[in-house]
Amino acid sequence: MGFETLPIIDNTRAAEDTDLNKWILTSTPIPVSIILGLYLLFVLKIGPKFMEKRQPYNLKGIMMAYNLYQVLYNGILVTMFLINTEAQKYLIKHTCKPVPYTENPFNNEFYLASWAYLLSKIVDLLDTVFMVLKKKNSHITFLHVYHHTAMVSATWVCIKYIRAEQGVVPCTINCAVHVIMYAYYFLAALGPEVQKYLWWKRYLTNIQIAQFLIVMAYLGLLYLNKCEVSQVYNVFWICNVFVILCLFLNFYIKTYLKSSRIIKIEIKKTD
């Protein structure tokens, strides 16, 4: 099957008049476009200029509340999937061949979870805002900004136009990873007494890389088996995740492998 013949939408769902077409954030592209525009303007220009001659803000309390919120919110999204055993059975049974739109008993749950996931990606943009206010400019890399911007815009497009059921699996995995990440950030904010026990910091990047590989493998199998799902979704996210994976691998190599090698060389010189 060539890319030019890929179906844009499973079961022509865009033609259906669903509530998603009337919900805030998904009714039109204007709200999300404004949010992303303001985000990029602030983190790339206005924010750094505003903080140029100011001391970093102490956001410890706000950051702890934010990290705890992320743990709880993403945890709820994961739990919603885990406790809905009927939805799990449906996805397993119809992974490669979804039932017609009018016969799907989980449409409402699917749309609600999709919208809630989009909201979580928008809230994630605050990560960069906090970095600007704390003057952690070295953390505001191309990887960081691209990742957050791409996740919001790509998620919106998929929810609005593609609405692929197979997206439930990657989104649930992503939310589970976010629970681990923000739990670490929350614990790290408690101070040195707790930080010394957080030996698993390095493995956060490993977990993120693992999720990208799992998602690519899952969507790749759906594509290679020519499943009756939105192949545009599969190709779209395989490409997007591959770009993010390459950026993460580059970050991992520079941060951990090269730095470890430099430290070993310095130690050897002092011997």
Structural notes for this entry:
This protein is mostly helical. The protein has one domain. It contains ten helices and no strands. Helix 1 packs parallel to helix 5 and helix 7 runs antiparallel to helix 9. The radius of gyration is 21 Å and the shape is globular. The termini are far apart.
Detail the topology: elements first, then pairings:
Elements lengths: L29 H22 L8 H24 L1 H9 L13 H17 L2 H8 L8 H21 L5 H21 L3 H4 L6 H23 L6 H40 L1
Low-confidence stretches: 1-17, 262-271
- Spatial gap, N to C terminus: 61 Å
Q: How much is the radius of gyration in Å?
A: 21 Å
| Biggest sheet descriptor | none
Judging from the principal axes of the Cα atoms, what is the shape? globular
Helix content: 55-70%
Query: What is the H-and-E element order?
Result: HHHHHHHHHH
Domain module count: 1
> What is the count of DSSP helices, taking H or I runs of 4+ residues?
10
DSSP summary, beta strand count:
0
Q: Name the average pLDDT.
A: 86
Kindly name the structural category: mainly alpha
- Beta content comes to under 5%
Assembly annotation: single chain
Give a summary of the structure in a few sentences:
The protein is an all-alpha fold and 271 residues long. It has helices at residues 30-51, 60-83, 85-93, 107-123, 126-133, 142-162, 168-188, 192-195, 202-224, 231-270.
Any key phrases for this structure?
271 residues; mainly alpha; 10 helices; 70% helix; disordered C terminus
